[in-house]
Each structure stands twice: as structure tokens, then as C-alpha cells.
Design a protein that fits this description.
Shape of chain B: elongated
Low-confidence stretches of chain B: none
Number of strands of chain B: 10
Shape of chain A: globular
Distance between the termini of chain B: 76 Å
Strand order of the largest sheet of chain A: 6-1-2-9-8-7
Largest interface: A-B, 21 and 26 residues
Radius of gyration of chain A: 15 Å
Largest sheet of chain B: 5 strands, mixed
Number of strands of chain A: 9
Number of helices of chain A: 4
Strand order of the largest sheet of chain B: 8-1-2-10-9
Radius of gyration of chain B: 23 Å
CATH topology of chain B: OB fold (Dihydrolipoamide Acetyltransferase, E2P)
Mean pLDDT of chain A: 85
Number of domains of chain B: 1
Oligomer: heterodimer
CATH architecture of chain B: Beta Barrel
Helix content of chain A: 10-25%
Number of helices of chain B: 3
């Protein structure tokens, strides 16, 4: 399981915390999350610079309806040797997820998903939260 | 009162019959989970099906093909739900409220398969499972492992290992 989760594997060891800090946001109505430690900063997106940041939805492969109407923020992703800034629809919130709730992708989802960087799922009573690992994804994008 | 008396020969003959060794003539059988899709009956090997579920909440996961209908929670574990309609080239079921979900394992993977109805779980003589006919449609040839008759209907036995392997590589 730790192999499947990769960077999230540490959450399964009893020597570590029983929660994982994540930054949550919605893309096209779908609840998504990133490991908080992958996020360096969050700042409001102003009218002047709104066109300069790529939308996180298009990077992940999720449709983002009518971006212009949404209040957006800039999320700065920490990479090993650089940083990448992406725009994301507000609200962007910090949450602690119980590690027991974090599940690796089911085999068929892992095999067939078109979403990029999807690493794990959290199933709650009102739906599913998609947990993405942007560092690997962005590293691939930058090098390609 | 007028019971016919047995002769000694008959008594000894009866004794010999009783002592005769019982020969086990059990024929090998296979457990099958028979299910219905759009009125047709199909089956999986029983050993490949870990559980039959009903009345589950399926949660949509974006970015997946339509035949991957979502995920369900099976006692804390998340399992995918796939539909075989597209793979078998059957029209999609309209009413899913009475669907059952077969939690299966094959080709090193696991998933639930949504079916219209579970017909029965039965032990079938292997000799009653016949090789698929050569006239089988092209899309079924790779995934059908046998044909049998059950309750006067034709049941198509499917190879779950092959289905999961093919599905994970983009079929269906």
C-alpha cells in the first residue's frame, strides 16, 4: 500500500501522526486535495494578473466551468528545485484528514483514470475527495 | 402375515451386497455465480467472486470511462464499480435500483461488477460446461470460457481474469 501511495506512504506508519494536513479546493464541483506540505503559499488573484497563471483544473484534467466568474486564488506549489504558481477557485482551505480515511486508488481507477497526478481517494458520506500529488506531475511537465 | 421367507442364498447375497465397497464416482464440479444482464444469463467462477453486495451507494469519480461507474465503500475499503454492458455490447440498464454488485478478483486486481440481478450460485458438473462455439461473436471470443444450460436457459461463462486484464488495458 505504501508503494501505491508513494509520498503519502508515511501516513500509514504508526510512528507518524494519525492525520494528514491537506489543502482542499473544488474544481468544477469536485472536491480535491493536495498535501499541505506541497503548498508553499496562497494569495489572492487580482484582475491584473488573472491571465498569467494556469488553472489547476486544466493541469489535473478536470473541467473548470466559467473560470472568469469565480473568485480565484494563486496557489504556489513547492518543487525540489523550483516553484509553480497555479490559479484555483476559492475557497481554498487547510484541513486535517484522518489517515484511516485515505485509500489508495482502486485497481481499475488507477488503470483507467484520465486525471493527472491522482494518487488517493477519501470517501465521505457526501462524496469522494480526490487527492493529487502535484510534485511528480509538475516535475514531468517542467522537464517535458 | 404371508411374508415370503428368504432363502439362505438370498440372505448371503444381501450380506455380500452390503459389504461391497462403495465406489466414489463424484464428478468434478465448478461453483458458478450466475447473473443476468439485459435478460441474458452469464456466469463467473465462484472462486473469483468474494462477495455479492446490494443496495450500495456508488460515488462518481471524474476522469474515468463511463463503464467505470464510480467507487463504493466495502467495510472501509474503496472498490471500483464497473459495468460489463459496453464490453458485452449490451444496452445499458435503465433501472439500476435492483442491481447487485459482485466483488471479484482476477488478474491480480479487484473490482465490483454491477449486474442486473444475481440468478443463483450453483455447483455445476464440469462435463456440463461446454467449449464456446466457434460462431461466438468476435467481441466475446476472448472473454467467454464456456457455455452451459441452466433452468432451460443458456448461460455464458465469462473469464474474469481476462476481463479485468483487458479492462485495465482500456477495453470496455
Amino acid at each position: 500500500m505504501s508503494e501505491v501511495l508513494g509520498n503519502l506512504g508515511h501516513v500509514l506508519s504508526p510512528a507518524f501522526s494519525t492525520t494528514l494536513e491537506v489543502v482542499t479546493f473544488c474544481v468544477g464541483g469536485q472536491r480535491c486535495a493536495l498535501e499541505a506540505r506541497q503548498v508553499r503559499a496562497l494569495q489572492p488573484l487580482t484582475d491584473e494578473n488573472s491571465g498569467t497563471y494556469p488553472a489547476i483544473g486544466s493541469l489535473l484534467g478536470l473541467p473548470e466551468p466559467n473560470k472568469a466568474c469565480l473568485h480565484r486564488q494563486i496557489v504556489t506549489i513547492r518543487l525540489p528545485e523550483s516553484e509553480v504558481e497555479l490559479s484555483v477557485a476559492a475557497p481554498v482551505e487547510l484541513h486535517e484528514l484522518a489517515v484511516d480515511l485515505i485509500q489508495p486508488l482502486p485497481d481499475m481507477v488507477a488503470a483507467r483514470t484520465q486525471l493527472r497526478g491522482l494518487r488517493a481517494l477519501v470517501m465521505e458520506t457526501d462524496g469522494v475527495t480526490l487527492i493529487f500529488d502535484l510534485r511528480n506531475l509538475l516535475s514531468e511537465v517542467i522537464t517535458s | 402375515m404371508n411374508k415370503q421367507e428368504m432363502t439362505l442364498d438370498q440372505v448371503l447375497s444381501q450380506r455380500r451386497e452390503a459389504k461391497r465397497e462403495i465406489v466414489n464416482v463424484d464428478e468434478p464440479t465448478a461453483k458458478l455465480v450466475i447473473f443476468e444482464l439485459q435478460g441474458d444469463w452469464f456466469a463467473f467462477q465462484g472462486e473469483k467472486i468474494r462477495e455479492i453486495l446490494s443496495q450500495v451507494d456508488v460515488f462518481f469519480v471524474p476522469g474515468c470511462p463511463t463503464s467505470l461507474e464510480g467507487v463504493i465503500n466495502v467495510r472501509g475499503d474503496i472498490e471500483s464499480v464497473i459495468s460489463l454492458h459496453e464490453l458485452l455490447q449490451l444496452p445499458e440498464s435503465v433501472d439500476m435500483s435492483s442491481s447487485s454488485y459482485l466483488l471479484g478478483s482476477g488478474a491480480g486486481m479487484s473490482s465490483t461488477i454491477r449486474v442486473d440481478k444475481v440468478v443463483d450460485v450453483v455447483d455445476v458438473l464440469l462435463s456440463n460446461i461446454h467449449k464456446p462455439p466457434t460462431t461466438l461473436p468476435e467481441h466475446l471470443r476472448a472473454i467467454v470460457s464456456g457455455i452451459l444450460q441452466f433452468k432451460e436457459k443458456t448461460v455464458t461463462a465469462l473469464d474474469l481474469d481476462r476481463i479485468f486484464a483487458d479492462y485495465s488495458h482500456g477495453l470496455g
